[in-house]
Amino acid sequence: PEFREGLLSLKDKYQNFDVIDMWSNDEITSFVRSAIYLTYLMPDKVHPTEMGYERIFFPEFRKYMDRKST
């Protein structure tokens, strides 16, 4: 929570500092709290595997970029 709040405060402070706040996405948050999410993480349980990026993070990045380009 502290890291997230820090990033969001930077977004508020600097006009060109964008944050993709995935914790405000209910679908992502509920998935992250499920047991299956662990299959998408590296052994450190923090960083996503390639499949984790492909199935979870890249689609969100794509949505963000689509919104930015319109």
Helix content: 55-70%
- Average pLDDT over all residues: 87
Radius of gyration: 14 Å
**N to C succession of SSEs:** HHH
Number of strands: 0
Globally, the shape reads: globular
**Main sheet makeup:** none
What's the multimeric state? single chain
Give the helix/strand class: mainly alpha
Poorly predicted runs are none
Question: How many H/I helical runs?
Answer: 3
Strand content: under 5%
Q: How many angstroms separate the termini?
A: 31 Å
Structure write-up:
The chain is mostly helical and about 70 residues long. About 55% of the residues lie in helices and about 0% in strands. It has three helices and no strands. It starts with a helix and ends with a helix.
Which properties best describe this structure?
mainly alpha; 3 helices
Q: TL;DR of this structure?
A:
The protein has 70 residues and is an all-alpha fold. It contains three helices and no strands. The protein starts with a helix and ends with a helix.
Give the topology.
Elements: H1 2-13, H2 26-32, H3 50-69
